Amino acid sequence: ELYQNNKVFYKYEKEAPDGSTIDKRDYYYSCIWGGSRIDIFKDLKLYDSIPLEVQYPTCCCFGGVHENKLFITSASTLNSTGNNGYITILDL
């Protein structure tokens, strides 16, 4: 579940939100543990999702000279896809 002011604004059934970050436009990026994606929220509503090749993304942050790269970490030992435990860098 995601909360604001102690009120749920988005609920997950099988996955769970983990680490998150906010971009310059005030979009909220949430790593979805067990969901192989990052959900993007705007004004407390699901705006978009970014599919990932890892099942358990754990944390994300923006970086790079123009802050247009999204760095994503993931859990390393929970499955055998071969992509877990590395830093994924996406150009946004």
The quaternary organization reads as single chain
Biggest sheet details:
4 strands, antiparallel
N-C termini distance:
26 Å
Number of helices: 0
Number of strands: 9
Shape: flat
The residue-averaged pLDDT reads: 90
- Sheet-strand content, in percent, reads over 45%
Largest sheet, order of strands side by side? 3-4-5-6
Q: Structural class, judged by helices and strands?
A: mainly beta
Query: What is the percent of helical residues?
Result: under 10%
Taking pLDDT < 50 over at least 5 consecutive residues as the criterion, the unreliable ranges are none
Order of helices and strands: EEEEEEEEE
CA-based gyration radius: 13 Å
Kindly summarize this structure in a few lines.
With 92 residues, the chain is mainly β. It has no helices and nine strands.
Topology overview:
Elements: E1 2-4, E2 7-10, E3 16-22, E4 28-33, E5 37-42, E6 45-51, E7 57-63, E8 69-74, E9 88-91
